[in-house]
Amino acid sequence: MSQHTHQLCHDERGSTILELTISLMLFLFMAFGVIEYGSILNERNALTQLAREGASMASRNLTSDQNMLDLLESTDNALDMANNPSKYRIFLATITAGTAADNAPTCAIVERGGLNNGVQAPALPNCDLDANLMGYVTYNGVAQVGQFTVVKVYYQHDPITPFGNLDWFNGSSGNAPTVMMSRAIF
Fold first, then answer.
1. Domains in the chain: boundaries
2. What is the DSSP letter of 2?
3. Is the per-residue pLDDT at 10 higher than 80?
């Protein structure tokens, strides 16, 4: 083999290592992105399910508000709220229909959890109930619905990969944790 051919093979080997390095970096970036995004989607789905099931059960008045919060907190899913009280906040709001004496509906809110970053309680006096739904509980000779239940659940996502500090939904990056919220009305 000539000196020139040997040098050409050596140069190709170096470029192959460079191509492999770049390919592996892109693959790792994509793999970490898929893992982190999947984790966020899993937590968001669990959060939505928790809010919906909680509002559905709470609207039936089967137990006290504190027992309902205990039940929601202890739910065994991807959120693991029972072991991390500083990562979540649950609001349970009950809007009771107005009466002949006071036609305005009343709102009672109970809450649980230690998360304060980016959390907003249901706003009084309507407890985050949409205006078209408020008409159903406002007394105008008769209230069409006796009560509505609103459950708002906030949860803080902790990154599991090096790319976890990217805010996948807003397109920005930073060190602030991603706080997700789900709301359900029954």
1. 3-185
2. -
3. no
